UniProtKB/TrEMBL annotation, chain A:
<feature type="transmembrane region" description="Helical">
    <location>
        <begin position="294"/>
        <end position="318"/>
    </location>
</feature>
<protein>
    <recommendedName>
        <fullName>NADH-ubiquinone oxidoreductase chain 5</fullName>
        <ecNumber>7.1.1.2</ecNumber>
    </recommendedName>
</protein>
<keyword id="KW-1133">Transmembrane helix</keyword>
<dbReference type="GO" id="GO:0008137">
    <property type="term" value="F:NADH dehydrogenase (ubiquinone) activity"/>
</dbReference>
<dbReference type="GO" id="GO:0042773">
    <property type="term" value="P:ATP synthesis coupled electron transport"/>
</dbReference>
<feature type="transmembrane region" description="Helical">
    <location>
        <begin position="47"/>
        <end position="71"/>
    </location>
</feature>
<dbReference type="GO" id="GO:0005743">
    <property type="term" value="C:mitochondrial inner membrane"/>
</dbReference>
<keyword id="KW-0472">Membrane</keyword>
<feature type="transmembrane region" description="Helical">
    <location>
        <begin position="490"/>
        <end position="509"/>
    </location>
</feature>
Automatic annotation (TrEMBL), chain B:
<feature type="transmembrane region" description="Helical">
    <location>
        <begin position="271"/>
        <end position="301"/>
    </location>
</feature>
<feature type="transmembrane region" description="Helical">
    <location>
        <begin position="54"/>
        <end position="73"/>
    </location>
</feature>
<keyword id="KW-0830">Ubiquinone</keyword>
<comment type="function">
    <text>Core subunit of the mitochondrial membrane respiratory chain NADH dehydrogenase (Complex I) that is believed to belong to the minimal assembly required for catalysis. Complex I functions in the transfer of electrons from NADH to the respiratory chain. The immediate electron acceptor for the enzyme is believed to be ubiquinone.</text>
</comment>
<keyword id="KW-0679">Respiratory chain</keyword>
<dbReference type="InterPro" id="IPR050175">
    <property type="entry name" value="Complex_I_Subunit_2"/>
</dbReference>
<feature type="transmembrane region" description="Helical">
    <location>
        <begin position="7"/>
        <end position="31"/>
    </location>
</feature>
<keyword id="KW-0472">Membrane</keyword>
<feature type="transmembrane region" description="Helical">
    <location>
        <begin position="231"/>
        <end position="251"/>
    </location>
</feature>
């Protein structure tokens, strides 16, 4: 029995278990809290806490289900890899950290899971050992490190309250200055983990990881950890912070949706789509609808995991080629994979009655119901249109058209294990949305909108699809439309220059200063006044004295006599 | 060569007379006996260098003896009722002793002469011949600026000059000059500290020099080959040099520790500071010898057979002396 199968069965079992428990807890409206006091210093107790309610159990069951499928899937995807055991172990460690994060309402135990996520995701990004992975891993780890530090500082601030169980203090967050700082730091941590705008550049870079990792870690679970943290803290967010978060979330959504339209790397397109959806979650959270954010988090995890698995299947068949310009017409050679790909893509777009529809449409309608300004409204709907736009562009490039890969290629749909792993998810991608809506919202949302606003989502989706097709259409004698505006294309495709900001922008001056200091101080003045010059002075003196002392016996004796005579003369 | 036995005995007797005599004249006489019996020990009619060394030694020591005798006579004259006159003759007296022991401004004969000696004579020169001038210095002990100047000169000259040497005998000579500086500083304050210093210095120097003698090496580059056939000896050799430099887990740290503490208790901070700082240069060339031997990849020649030497007693002795810092520290309570 292979290691993949062992972990697949284990995770699947626990997934089903926690799903059933979640249903039970939901029906009973019950939550369970286990506390184990480790030690108590200075009337500040350090407690390991486990909080089991329907939310954590449901999220846990989804994470476990997706990870079980991904592990099953990676048996074939990672086939022949000599470090497969390490890979599976790392993924399991990741799941474990995620569990710790989900079930703990305590900042210290959250930090345990949080740091575990950062470390394991670093290890997974650098799994393929090359320079690109190394750089990607470094930017991932360091960006997440900011969040870790913010969380640590929040822990330090929480010592004022004599305990780290934030769940008890959530009511006083809005009244106290210290708690304001804490929630600010928590927000910062969540923003780094969920790759919101100043920290976005790591998410596309992290696509250097193996595709199953991207599927599990960088689409459905790790990046949603920040959203989950904010969901747990949502009562504490003051209205100012909500507005900041809303602005950042919408900007991220727009930026990522725009960037995905210019990207040619298959995995990066999906990564940017993930980023866009994260922005959506954050912004609906910032509107106060934390349940909707959680709902979208779960459905998004399902279809995005499947999307990545399909992409991995294609990459696997196309001998590790990720560039969508080499693909095309894959529907003819890999029909089942492409069907899954299409389903999850359409779920992402929010095609009615697929899982994405229930969450996304609800979010948009709740937004339309609310009384926010026109900017927020426009950017929400524009980003929805962009989602459909890049999805149809992707479909245009990958699924239909001419086959653009090498003439000699072995592309088929025979990868049985991968398809089985994907098939495990497809059911949930289709019915997950409606199922979750029935579960989570016993009383449906009341939506009352004029007809045009009601169908606005549909209209922008149609326009998005049309533009996505038109803008990416390319023929032999005509260049891409985006080449007419080369500078703005470059700007949008490079995520509004964010990768430069978080790499060269940060370290350019320190490194320059370091080189200057190294040249002037380390190799310059401190050598001049320190070791080298001192050494050369001493050895020159030594050479000089050697010359003086060499065979001048008579002179030295004369000098001694002169010294004695000099002394006698004084008497 | 049996005459060497005779002269070796008279060498010992001369020193003993010098250090145990009640009168200045007796001391002078002991020094003369010591000098005159050292000359035949050095001289070797097959080696011109040895003869040259003997001559150099004779000339310089005679001059020193002359000065010594001169200052003794002048000091004992009746018109020496003024203290400051005594001070001047005391300076001449000290000068002569410094020449005899080879302290720094009067050291120039010492390394040159050492270059002509074999290792056995070098051991005598480095250790036993230092004894009588130092004991005499304790008798004319004045904490004067002159002594301090000599200490500083010894420190600087030994450190700077030793850096440029490849001859092991010269390195040992400069190392001895450095230790003379330390010993003079201990003479200046507490004689018992000098006593410990001298004994421990002699032990370490004899250990090192016996190894050189057994392996028959005179220059640094010879060490690379000779030491490789005796790996354990190499280790002990290196540790001995660290001990000589005064690194803490070894015996050589003990006298330096005492001296530094004595100096600080007498509020002589700056001289202690200068001594420690200048000894670092000495330590540098010790470590340069040992590290290059220990760390450079060794070349063992297949068809070259080093004459087998018995290193057991050297090792045993080294082992005891290197690691006896704790015991010496304990013993210090009872002495």
């Amino acid at each position: 029995m292979s290691i993949c199968l062992i972990y697949f069965v284990t995770f699947l079992f626990f997934s089903v278990l926690s799903f059933l428990l979640s249903l039970n807890f939901m029906i009973l409206d019950y939550s369970l809290m286990l506390e184990y006091e480790m030690l108590s210093i200075n009337s500040c107790s350090i407690i390991m806490t486990i909080l089991l309610d329907w939310m954590s159990l449901l999220f846990m069951s989804f994470v476990l289900f997706i990870s079980s499928m991904v592990i099953y899937y990676s048996e074939e995807y990672m086939e022949g890899d000599i470090y497969l055991h390490r890979f599976i172990m790392l993924v399991s460690m990741f799941v474990l950290s995620m569990m710790l994060l989900i079930i703990s309402p305590n900042l210290i135990s959250i930090l345990l899971g949080w740091d575990g996520l950062g470390l394991v995701s670093y290890c997974l990004v650098i799994y393929y050992q090359n320079i690109k992975s190394y750089n990607a891993g470094m930017i991932t780890a360091l960006t997440n490190r900011i969040g870790d530090v913010a969380l640590l500082m929040a822990i330090a601030w929480m010592m004022n309250f004599g305990g780290f169980n934030y769940i008890f203090y959530i009511d006083v967050y809005k009244n106290s200055m210290e708690m304001y700082i804490i929630i600010l730091l928590i927000m910062l941590a969540a923003m780094t983990k969920s790759a919101q705008i100043p920290f976005s550049s790591w998410l596309p870079a992290a696509m250097a990881a193996p595709t199953p990792v991207s599927s599990l870690v960088h689409s459905s679970t790790l990046v949603t950890a920040g959203v989950y943290l904010l969901i747990r803290f949502n009562f504490a967010l003051t209205s100012n912070l909500m507005l900041i978060l809303l602005f950042i979330g919408t900007m991220t959504m727009f930026m990522a949706g725009m960037g995905a339209n210019f990207e040619f790397d298959l995995k990066k397109i999906i990564a940017l789509s993930t980023l866009s959806q994260l922005g959506l979650m954050i912004s609906i959270l910032a509107l106060g609808e934390y349940q909707l954010a959680f709902f979208h988090l779960l459905t998004h995890a399902l279809f995005k995991a499947l999307l990545f698995m399909c992409a991995g299947c294609m990459i696997h068949s196309l001998s590790n080629c990720q560039d969508i310009r080499y693909m095309g017409g894959l529907i003819k050679v890999m029909p089942l994979t492409c069907t899954y790909f299409m389903i999850s893509n359409l779920a992402l777009c929010g095609l009615p009655f697929l899982s994405g529809f229930y969450s996304k449409d609800l979010i948009l309608e709740v937004l339309s119901m609310s009384y926010l300004n026109i900017y927020i409204y426009v950017i929400f709907f524009f980003s929805t249109g962009l989602t459909v736009c890049y999805t149809f562009r992707l479909i245009y490039y990958v699924l239909v058209g001419n086959f653009c890969f090498y003439s000699l290629s072995k592309i088929n749909d025979n990868s049985k294990i991968m398809l089985q792993g994907m098939s495990g998810l497809i059911f949930l991608v289709i019915v997950g949305g409606s199922m979750l809506m029935w579960l989570m919202f016993p009383t449906p949302y009341f939506i009352c909108l004029p007809f045009t606003m009601k169908i606005m989502a549909l209209i922008v989706s149609f326009f998005g699809a049309w533009f996505g097709f038109e803008l990416s259409k390319f023929t032999l004698n005509d260049s891409l439309k985006s080449f007419y505006l080369l500078n703005s294309s470059l700007f949008f495709s490079s995520m509004w220059n964010m990768p430069y900001i978080s790499t060269f922008g940060l370290n350019y001056y320190p490194i320059k200063l370091g080189s200057k200091l190294y040249k002037t101080i380390d190799q310059g003045w401190s050598e001049y006044y320190g070791s080298q010059n001192l050494y050369s002075k001493i050895s020159n003196t030594s050479v000089f004295l050697q010359f003086m002392f060499n065979n001048n016996y008579k002179i030295f004796m004369l000098l001694i006599m002169m010294w004695v005579i000099f002394m006698i003369l004084y008497i | 060569m049996y005459y060497k036995l005779l002269f070796f005995n008279s060498l010992m007797i001369g020193t003993l007379i010098a250090i145990s005599s009640y009168s200045w004249m007796g001391m002078w006489m002991g020094l003369e006996i010591n000098l005159l019996s050292m000359i035949p020990l050095i001289s070797d009619n097959k080696n011109m260098m040895a003869s040259e060394a003997a001559l150099k030694y004779f000339i310089i020591q005679t001059m020193a003896s002359t000065l010594l005798l001169f200052s003794i006579i002048m000091m004992s004259m009746k018109f020496m009722y003024q203290m400051n006159l005594i001070t001047y003759f005391n300076l001449i007296f000290n000068t002569s002793l410094f020449i005899k022991m080879g302290a720094a401004p009067f050291h120039f004969w010492f390394p040159e002469m050492m270059e002509g000696l074999n290792w056995l004579n070098a051991i005598i020169m480095l250790t036993w011949q230092k004894l009588s001038p130092m004991v005499l210095l304790t008798y004319s002990n004045t904490t004067s600026m002159y002594l301090i100047l000599t200490i500083m000169f010894s420190m600087m000259i030994s450190g700077i000059m030793g850096l440029n040497q490849t001859s092991l005998r010269k390195i040992m000579a400069y190392s001895s000059i450095n230790h003379i500086g330390w010993m003079i500083s201990s003479i200046m304050l507490i004689e018992i500290v000098w006593f410990y210093y001298f004994i421990i210095y002699c032990i370490i120097t004899i250990n090192i020099s016996i190894m050189f003698m057994k392996l028959n090496v005179f220059h640094i580059n010879q060490l690379y080959i000779s030491m490789n056939y005796h790996i354990l000896l190499k280790l002990f050799f290196a540790l001995n040099f660290m001990s000589l430099g005064g690194l803490p887990p070894f015996l050589g740290f003990f006298p330096k520790w005492l001296t530094i503490q004595t100096l600080i208790q007498s509020n002589m901070y700056s001289i202690a500071f200068i001594m420690i700082l200048m000894t670092l240069m000495t330590l540098f060339f010790y470590l340069r010898i040992t590290f290059s031997i220990l760390l450079l990849s060794k070349a063992v020649l297949t068809f070259y057979t080093q004459p087998k030497i018995n290193t057991n007693y050297i090792m045993a002795f080294n082992f005891i002396t290197l690691l006896s810092l704790i015991f010496v520290t304990l013993m210090f309570n009872f002495l």
